[in-house]
Design goal:
This protein is α+β, with helices and mostly antiparallel strands. The chain has helices spanning 16-32, 79-102, 120-126, and strands at 6-10, 38-44, 56-64, 67-76. It has three helices and four strands.
Length: 129
């Protein structure tokens, strides 16, 4: 990565285990696609409805050459589940991006116009017995 990993944790207690888990997930993304230029991870526990329990929000901003991949995942009651879902979605988007830049995605060929209809009489004239 050209820009160091940025991790922001809001609304919950910062722990080394959580930060290590995030770094491991980012390292796996880098092993999968080594052209990642930057990565920002935000984990937060917004103050919303208490009836539903804790609802974590994970946002990933991943810089790749010529583009940025953004993933936003809400409503997981476990921070590790929210991170797993977010990084799984990021991996799928990176796979799609990698296929595009490699040219693996098939492009549709332009439709060809049907040949002008030929009279049956003209075809018979060309055929010699």
């Amino acid at each position: 990565m050209q820009i160091p990993l940025q991790i922001t944790i809001r609304g919950i207690e910062h722990s080394e285990a959580l930060e290590t888990h995030i770094r491991d997930k980012v390292n796996k993304l880098e092993e999968f696609f080594d052209h990642i230029t930057s990565c920002r991870v935000v984990v937060e526990l917004p103050h919303k409805h208490h009836q539903q329990g804790k609802q974590f929000n994970v946002r990933l901003d991943i810089g790749v050459p010529g583009s940025e991949i953004v993933v936003n995942r809400d409503h997981a009651e476990d921070v590790y589940v929210a991170l797993r879902d977010g990084f799984d979605a990021a991996k799928r988007q990176i796979e799609e991006y990698a296929r595009k830049i490699r040219g693996d995605i098939k492009t549709h060929q332009p439709r060809q116009r049907p040949a002008e209809s030929i009279d049956a009489d003209e075809v018979q004239d060309d055929v010699q017995p």
